């Protein structure tokens, strides 16, 4: 800890110190104590991060920033999930998957394999997260149709994907381009 008790350093800023060779790659900086994180079984855990403390995903822990303490509670994977290590991270992983799709002029098939045909020009929600589970990333996929010469037949005019505070738009009027936020 440096810069007083209200800050902690990522690496110590001593010009000729043991970490001086690292200063070019990692800029020494101070962060408010509430963002310093916790230590759990000798490992540094970033503030606010949650992790599984056991190999069977039965104990979920979180680094509480204000207290700099790790708080754990009993928890288990949900129905249809199993505890696995994916890309080096232990997590509850779905044991199966499902697909929805939109094809043609347009025909929709839902995750439960039901078929729908929407010929209107409304904005339709193709898929979205409906769970309140904080470990899942909220997303939404919207589709807008346009008439194809008559009100009986339509085609997909625009697809918008909302995820990670981004709006990604694919539109028929800008072939080969994708708009992110408001820029093509």
TrEMBL record:
Q: Where are the transmembrane segments?
A: none
InterPro entries assigned: Mucin_vWF_Thrombospondin_sf, TILa_dom, VWF_type-D
Q: Where is the VWFD domain?
A: 98-184
According to its record, what are the GO cellular component terms?
A: extracellular matrix; extracellular space
Cite the entry's keywords alphabetically: Disulfide bond, Glycoprotein
Keyword Cell membrane (UniProt):
no
Domain of life of the source: Eukaryota
Can you name this protein?
VWFD domain-containing protein
Organism expressing this protein natively: Cyclopterus lumpus (Lumpsucker)
Q: Lineage from the top down?
A: Eukaryota, Metazoa, Chordata, Craniata, Vertebrata
